[in-house]
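Final paragraph of the annual report: two paired records, presented back to back.
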Amino acid sequence: MIDVQTKMAGRALELLCLPEGQPCYLLDIGCGSGLSGDYLSDEGHYWVGIDISPAMLDAALDRDTEGDLLLGDMGQGIPFKPGSFDGCISISAIQWLCNANKKSDVPAKRLYCFFSSLYSVLVRGARAVLQLYPENSEQLELITTQATKAGFTGGVVVDFPNSAKAKKFYLCLFSGPSTFLPKALNESNDEEETRESEFTSERIPYRMARRGLVRKSRQWVLEKKARRRRQGREVRPDTPYTGRRRKPRF
């Protein structure tokens, strides 16, 4: 599941069409334990994650994610100043706004509140790419209608539309003049479909999803320091002792 989440985050970032080699400030809606945010950090971007689950945010803190985290309900709006973010991604989250968990919950109103506040916090001309699993065409139409009412243009990109396993929906929204809609991936990438998730009986240490590096290992520490240098942060110089485990003291 970590591998699938990371691939979807990578695809969402690709659909954002951000400037090459330029760190951006991004919003991750429904960030969960920070898996998507880790990918954004690996690509040199700064990010803020918002999630409704305290347990998931605690897990993100335990994993030492680099982004800032906020506890909040996206259906009540995104609480940031206008023009705060250069882009937004969301993985498997916004379809939950179609559910009414309380009598006072009206899906259409919650969706409009979410999209209108999202439109506000984005820089004009920025994009939002929201991966989702709609239950049916009516639910997808409800979501896209409220996004349009909030001021967004864009559309839905469906990768691998003829595949039961690999089919993915990405709602690509533009907060400025309407522009081209990115092309969807198709069945020519058969390997992508067959290798989307793999199971193993082997016990392995927790690894970074993208690069197979063991967390806290020397190579992991060196890559993290190099990434922070690219982001312009102040980092201590590397030494032969960098990443070396300290012996316990009694």
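The closing record of the year follows.
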Amino acid sequence: MATANLWDPAPAPNAAGLLLGHFVVSGLVTQEMLNISKKSAPCFVNFSRLQQITNMQAEINQKNLEIELLKLEKDTADIVHPSFLAQKCQTLQSMNNHLEAVLKEKRSLRQRLLKPMCQEHLPIEASYHSDLVHLLELAVTFIERLETHLETIRNIPHLDEREKKMSKALAEMDILVTKTEELAENILKWREQQKEVSSCIPKILAEENFPPKHDVTMPPLPLSSKVHV
């Protein structure tokens, strides 16, 4: 049964309604103020919102927990997952069978290992003979170049140092080439000077053996004659 609102002056002709009506008529209280007082308190709305937020936070925490469990399952799948465990069990079983076979044939294997491997060959089908020849050629080539490859691998950490030495050697070679060019030019000049000297030597020798003739003017004789020697 709904209870009457004491603040509503219209339906209930009680003392509170009459008093409120008197206040409205006198102007002490307006109708808008009475209407505002009818509304529900906002604190109850905030309580409901807080409850919703709490429920959403709990749901988020639950989802985060499920995600963490899935990540843990993914990380440990190779340990606890049935399919991975079945594969590991199968692998271990095959290894166990192989070891059992080896233990059963231990005596024959020991005798075969003690026996020298000579004049024995492996049976190979004829269709694979050409491939085998090519494979043996590659193996021989690889064994021949193995030491070179190993030396190259060992020298990889020293490449920077060797590059610096090579750059220094190239600079020294440039200097030597420049000096060699200067020396070659000096040699060519010296040869030209030697040729000039060689060409002048016969002339000098000829002048020393056959001195040049000079015109000599004799004084006048009494007969007034001039003799040129």
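The radius of gyration is 62 Å. This concludes the annual technical report; the extension proposal builds directly on these records.
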